[in-house]
Amino acid sequence: MDSGSTHYAVLKRRPELHWPADLYLEGHNDQFRGWYQSSLLIATITDGRAPYREVLSHGFVVDAQGRHMHKSLGNTVDPMEVVQKFGADVFRLWVASIDYTADVRIGDAILEQVAETYRKIRNTFRFILGNLFDFTPERDRVDPSKWPALERWIVSRAALLEEQVRLWAKNYQFRNIYGALYQFIHRELSSYYLDIRKDALYTLTPGDPLRRSAQSALYWLGRFLMAAFSPILVFTAEEVWQQWPKLPHEKEESIHLLTWPELPLPGGLEPTMEELFSLREELGETLEEARQQGAVLPASRIVFAAPQRDLGIWQEVGEETMAQALGVAEVILLAEEGERRVAVEPTGYQRCRRCWRYLPEVEESSDGLCQRCQKVLEELRLS
Question: Under a CB-based contact definition with an 8 Å cutoff, are residues 51 and 37 in contact?
Fold first, then answer.
């Protein structure tokens, strides 16, 4: 009776709250026939309806060996000790990563793994911020309709993920949010997009259209990731927002006061880019074998031979983009009948000492620079 009437004592007597509650949250042990039921019975008798709009039950925290925590066993975990050792955001990230519908384990080894994931997320934010140091949104943003295919692809992937994050959040599926966001950061963003675009971000002139397009994409990607992570990584998202390049009308002092950002839709997914990254995964074993045999992949070329009907999509992507995505100096597409053939061979090219690309003109350069870097440095001297 006492616990079942708390909704009346709390919600109806505090004007800043409202009745019924948005959510009742409690452990799954005996609460269906305990607190949940007594609350339902009393509210139905007094008000003719349930005192909550939704009910969410969860498991209990057990130790790393799966034992229930008891003071007599000495296996309890003090949340404040966890916060002091790992930080509040790591603790919150652990909560978001678990399947709370069942009993969940906690221990230093488990939290160390979560802390490593947190460092990856934090370092991604640092990379994005570092590459927006000279980016002023109202001045430098490039319209999505003018973005290269790679930028359209990565932001479209984020837009699809955004829809899923909204749906999962409404259904309290925080583990799905955590897993999908981390997978996006680890795979599409870091392993694919940033790995390819860091050359343009680091070595082109500040106002180069390709670099500004990449910064524009990073601006939107960062806004999305900040919003998606802000309920979980409360302090980290706030730190990022305080350093974020803002539009003149953005006066909000905190990330937690912002509305959800609307990602631009730059033409949907780019099928050719999807195919390219599928090819990258497919050729992974071939490239690893070449590496083990002593090949320096950044100085190698890939000869990709296939019937003409199968080369169309790769000719659309272009040999230069393929080379960047596959991490080699050069890709040559050859039309040949029969089965597809892929060979990795050395180019003999020298490495540009500024951008580190292996190009044929570097050997003839007196300063060890490629033609693009020579032009960039000349423009920087004149500016």
Answer: no
Where are the CATH 3.40.50.620 domain residues in the chain? 3-108
- Enumerate the CATH 1.10.730.10 domain ranges in the chain, comma separated: 114-257
Please answer whether residues 164 and 180 qualify as being in contact, where contact means their C-beta atoms are separated by less than 8 angstroms: yes
d(CA 367, CA 382): 19
Q: Given the structure tokens 């099928």, which residue do they identify?
A: 271
Amino acid at 155: V
H or E element at residue 110: helix 108-130
3-state helix, strand, coil in the chain (%, to 5): 55, 10, 35
Q: What is the helix (H) or strand (E) element at residue 343, kind and residue range? A: strand 341-346
Helix (H, G, I), strand (E, B) or coil at 236: helix
Residue 32 has pLDDT above 90, yes or no: no
CA–CA separation, 323 and 301 (whole Å):
8
Query: Who contacts 208 (Cβ-Cβ below 8 Å, separation ≥6)?
Result: 200
Find where tokens 């479209």 sit: 156
What's the one-letter identity of residue 159?
A
pLDDT digits (tens, 9 = 90+) for 217-259: 999 999 999 999 999 999 999 999 999 999 888 888 899 998 8
Class of domain 114-257: mainly alpha
Report phi then psi at 323, rounded to 5.
Answer: -65, -40
For residue 303, give the 3-state DSSP assignment: strand
Other Cβ atoms within 10 Å of 190 Cβ, number: 15
Question: Which residues, including other chains, have CB under 8 Å from residue 353's CB and lie 6 or more apart?
Answer: 368, 369
Per-residue pLDDT tens for 87-128? Answer: 999 999 999 999 998 888 888 899 999 999 999 999 999 999
Residue by residue, DSSP assigns 262-325 as -----SS--HHHHHHHHHHHHTHHHHHHHHHTT--GGGEEEEEEE-HHHHHHHHHH-HHHHHHH
Indicate the fold that domain 3-108 takes in CATH: Rossmann fold (3.40.50)
